[in-house]
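Researcher: Predict the fold of Protein PhnA.
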Amino acid sequence: MPSTCALCSAPATAETAVAPRDDTLPLCDTCQAGVQDGPQEAPHWQCLHEAIWSTDPATQVLAWRLLKGLETEVWARDLLDIAYLEPDVQSWAEAGLSDAPDVIHRDSNGTVLAQGDTVVLIKDLPVKGAGFTAKRGTAVRGISLVADNAEHIEGRVEGQRIVILTQFVKKS
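Model: Structure tokens for Protein PhnA follow.
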């Protein structure tokens, strides 16, 4: 067994299987606990900034799953937005998260929205805390879906990342 953790390079204490395949990775106690019980926000997880870009698919899968567990953190969500996994690696990573309920995001017309879509605002929306109003007709490109709320999406308007209610957008 290699002596360092595949995710954070700390001394490894155990081999961990990356389901549903038979691949195993050496992990430290902290990373092992995060994989088993879900990661808790801590400075330790900044190691995922490098792990997600690993050339080893099993390391990418574990890093992606841990980042999904930290999606309430802005840095983790941003890292997931820019991370690219090969399609077979992506499906492997998602296969391990099948117990999460599927949330379907729909625009004001009932059209299903997907990660990365472009939407148009159908109403002027005051943006709380930012001091501006997002005007009707504004295109919001590359939206992110809020995983646990079908009524919320996120996107950049006037350079600021904001949460937008799906009832005020239509897919373009």
